[in-house]
Amino acid sequence: MLLEGRVWRFGDNVDTDQIIPARYLNTTDPAELAAHCMEDADPEFPGKVRPGDILVAGRNFGCGSSREQAPLSLKAAGVACVVAASFARIFYRNAINIGLPIVECPEAAGAVAQGDRIAVDLGAGVLRAGEASFRVAPFPEFMQRIIAAGGLVPYTRQKLAKEVQDP
């Protein structure tokens, strides 16, 4: 799975309250969450992010509460992938569960700038930024299937439907 997009750059310790402020958690509508995604960290983000853009951050991205709305708001805003030096463990799991690919790569996280165009090959485990190339842990095949299905729930539904058809 190859993802290519324009970079939005953020620093270290971006917590879930910066990703989607708690004052907007009274809705479960992904479009409404997307309209406020990252607005406390960068007020221009919700109005300027485009489908396929890639968010790049420093260490400990997604720290704070375990709210699933954080990765959901990013995905609904059109973010194709998040690259960071490291992720909070619960954010990592929530992102995969809702079908948002995330990649740990401290070298790339420190090397790319706002507005750069990068490509992330999840299967091959390669991130390209201009002439530079970085190794990342490739996504296992089953995780790529979860991402392609749109998350763990749609993946499970597809798998169960197939088992019913082909017992």
Structure explained in plain terms:
- With 167 residues, the protein is α/β, with parallel strands linked by helices.
- The longest helix has 14 residues, at 152-165.
- The protein is built from eight helices and seven strands, in the order βαααβαβαβαβββαα.
- A seven-stranded mixed beta sheet has the order 4-3-2-1-5-6-7.
- A hairpin with a 2-residue loop joins strand 6 and strand 7 (132-135).
- It has helices at 16-19, 30-34, 45-48, 69-76, 89-98, 106-111, 141-149, 152-165; strands spanning 2-9, 54-57, 81-84, 102-104, 117-121, 126-129, 132-135.
Q: What general outline do the C-alpha atoms trace? A: globular
Treating each run of at least 4 consecutive H or I residues as one helix, how many helices?
8
Strand order across the largest sheet: 4-3-2-1-5-6-7
Q: Measured on Cα atoms, how large is the radius of gyration?
A: 16 Å
Q: In terms of per-residue confidence, which ranges show pLDDT below 50 for 5 or more consecutive residues?
A: none
Query: How many beta strands in the DSSP annotation?
Result: 7
Strand and helix order: EHHHEHEHEHEEEHH
Strand percentage = 15-25%
Please tell me the overall pLDDT. 93
Distance between the termini: 29 Å
| Helix content bin | 25-40%
Protein structure class: alpha/beta
Main beta sheet, described? 7 strands, mixed
